[in-house]
C-alpha cells in the first residue's frame, strides 16, 4: 500500500446561536401591527375603486403608503419565522 495521507476535510462550521424567542415574538407582533395599515389601505382603496371606478387623488398617496407599510409587516413576519441563516464572517469566528 502507498503512504498517501488521508484527504484534508474542510473545518466544520460552528453552529450559529439561535435568536432569542423574545426577539422573534417582538418581530411577529410588530409585523402584525404593521399589517393593519395595509389592510385598511386595501379596504379604502377597494371601496374607492368600487364606488367611483377609480381611486381619488386625495386618498391615493395614503393607500400607497398603507400598502408599503403592510408589505413591510409581511417582510418582518417572514424574517422572524425564517430565522437567522446568514453564514458567519471569517473575521468573526473564534
Provide structural commentary.
With 94 residues, this protein is mainly alpha-helical. The chain has two helices and no strands. Helix 1 runs antiparallel to helix 2. Keywords: Membrane, Transmembrane, Transmembrane helix.
Helix count? 2
What is the rounded distance between the termini?
39 Å
Record field, number of beta strands: 0
Radius of gyration, in Å, reads 24 Å
Poorly predicted ranges: none
Query: How much of the sequence is in beta strands?
Result: under 5%
Basic shape: elongated
> What is the N-to-C order of secondary-structure elements (H for helix, E for strand)?
HH
Structural class, please? mainly alpha
Helix content: 55-70%
Question: Which properties best describe this structure?
Answer:
transmembrane helix, 2 helices, transmembrane, 94 residues, mainly alpha, membrane
What's this model, at a glance?
This protein is mainly alpha-helical and 94 residues long. The protein is built from two helices and no strands. Keywords: Membrane, Transmembrane, Transmembrane helix.
Please outline the helices and strands.
Layout lengths: L20 H32 L7 H23 L12
Helix pairs in contact: 1-2
